[in-house]
Amino acid sequence: LFGGGPASPQPNPLTFEPMLSLRQTGAFRQTAASPDGAEGARVRSCHTTRAGRITTLPTCATTSLRCNHHIGQLPARKPFVTRGGRSTRRTRCSMSMQAYIVEQECGDLLRKEVPVPPIQNGEVLVAVKALSVNPIDFKVKDAAGLLEMLCGGSYPITLGWDIAGDVVAVGKDVTQLSVGDKVFGMVNFPGRGNAYAEQVAAPADQLALMPEGASYETCAAATLAALTALQALDKGGVTSGSKVLIHAASGGVGHFAVQMAKQRGAHVAATSSAKNKAFVVDTLGADEHIDYRQQAFEDVVSEMDFVLDPLGGDNLDKCISVTKRGGCVVSLPGPPAEATLERAKEAGVDAGFLLVKSSGDDMRSVSELLASGALKPHVARTFAFADLPAALTELAGGRSVGKVIVTV
Fold first, then answer.
1. What separation in angstroms does the CA of 67 have from each of 38, 86, 281, 323?
2. Does residue 296 sit in helix, strand or coil?
3. What is the pLDDT of residues 118-136, one digit of tens each?
4. Are 72 and 199 spatial neighbours (Cβ–Cβ below 8 Å)?
5. What is the pTM of this model?
6. Residue 94 has what pLDDT?
7. pLDDT (tens digit, 9 = 90+) per residue, 289-345?
8. Considering only CA atoms, which of 392, 382, 328 is closest in space to residue 354?
9. What are the DSSP calls for 16-53, one per residue?
């Protein structure tokens, strides 16, 4: 589109690369093939010489940077060309995208056309290819107090934090990622991730490169749930020889925690229903299985070094009772009651609440585990973006094995 006059070389498709560094100039010069799936903002007029070099650089109205993330969406029309080989047509591409909005407490997920988000310094714009839904999503949807605590502010909100996709624009001060990179991560948690959308503005330091050959669906699955498992095991100091108990082992967090603990050389006992025993033992690698419907886990295990409890309440008290002095219990639903904390203190057990936090370093650790084959996300079911509300309903049923994914 910016190909210049008749004497220019064949420059189509287009993209741009830094002439110096983005931090220095934000300028780009013409090179190779355009990224796919880019959507977004107005692109101001761009002039080229007969040699095809840009002399008036395109500026993106979404990012206020000179960049290339909208080139793939420019209309396939020939520019007006003067005798000097200059393009005079001012071209535009869409400034909107589709996203799901919750407008009030317990409100429906409404699919709407909204502006493409601007990116700030240190951020990249990601064209989302797959996203993951989590229990926290429908909890925030239905509880204004939780929304205020985790995200700040009030409704409306675009839910979601887990994404996998392609970088289509890079903000100032971003050096570790480039346009065209395939990335995944948990965005701005706690905070507003705005992941139920076709494009997401994300801090570059919260993302990791996808492993070679990995699918968008696999990587989207290994985000919030995988980071929760990783950060919990780190908090508990789980290492080779540790005795570990993982509750709800067939769920999103649980199935990652079992695999990560085994990768560290721990002995893993895991709870689930009987129908998921083969998955927990044969697929995930747990050493012991406890059918929570038929057995009281406190009668089966004792002297554990680490216990991961996604249930809370009375279950947390029982977890403390099977943990050895000096051991650790991590509770995921929320902070333990004062009475529970007192019992843990008397037992010499470190019991506490873990709120997962976005971390590019931890995402890179997850990426390495995926690349090595030590971590294999299980996708229970995949939904199209148009069916995202059904995906959340599926997850809320509480019987999903592994993760529920939405493709965009």
1. 12, 20, 50, 55
2. coil
3. 999 999 999 999 999 999 9
4. no
5. 0.78
6. 59
7. 999 999 999 999 999 999 999 999 999 999 999 999 999 999 999 999 999 999 999
8. 328
9. EEESS-TTTT--EEE-SPPPSS----BB---EE-TT--
